[in-house]
Specification:
Strand order of the largest sheet: 4-1-5
Distance between the termini: 30 Å
Helix content: 55-70%
CATH topology of the largest domain: Methane Monooxygenase Hydroxylase, Chain G, domain 1
Strand content: 5-15%
Number of strands: 5
Radius of gyration: 21 Å
CATH class of the largest domain: Mainly Alpha
Length: 185
């Protein structure tokens, strides 16, 4: 992978971890030291907005739950269906954090399968569906790169990671065409 893409993907991950997310507190939390130096208490049932990385820690400690449902097999199956409709050459819009959430969902299923072998089928199913989605979108993005231009409405349906992939592939194809079709031989 090119250094440019690697750095861009690392930045996306950092942005995601620091993005605000709403959680619901499950247990009373007393005298919590916040990053800004304040000390606060939170009641069970209270809705709070925090950075994703903090929310993830609280959820893992069973002190909170995400307000909005995280990725799951059902939502993944819906995306898979939309992507693989036989005549679908369209790129359906994905949540801007789709790939970051997908990575976490797959990691969570993998960890559960390590502890509980009966969950291995769920992990394998999610992994196969995820591969199909990724491969399908890569094919569609690759076909876009050969076009002289694409409408902004199509670019708007790409996640940040996909835009970086599109730009990198487009630049490679442009350079390749320029080299092959150059008059200097």
């Amino acid at each position: 992978m090119s250094k440019k893409i690697s750095e861009a993907l690392e930045n996306v991950e950092l942005e995601f971890l620091n993005s605000p997310v709403k959680i619901i507190i499950l247990k009373d939390l007393i005298d919590v030291a916040l990053i800004n130096g304040k000390i606060e208490s939170f009641k069970a049932g209270q809705e709070v907005e925090v950075s994703y990385w903090i929310a993830e820690k609280l959820v893992n400690l069973n002190l909170a739950k995400f307000k909005e449902e995280e990725a799951n097999l059902g939502s993944l199956s819906k995306i898979h269906w939309r992507e693989t409709i036989s005549d679908s050459r369209q790129l359906p819009k994905l949540n801007k954090n789709f790939y970051c959430a997908l990575k976490r969902f797959l990691r969570k299923l993998f960890m559960e399968a390590q502890k509980e072998p009966s969950k291995l089928k769920d992990y394998e199913k999610a992994l196969n569906i995820s591969r199909d989605i990724v491969n399908c979108r890569i094919r569609k993005i690759a076909s876009l790169t050969a076009a002289p231009s694409i409408p902004e409405s199509i670019l708007a349906n790409l996640t940040f990671e996909e835009v970086k992939l599109y730009e990198e592939l487009r630049d490679i194809i442009y350079e390749w065409k320029k080299t092959i079709l150059s008059d200097e031989s």
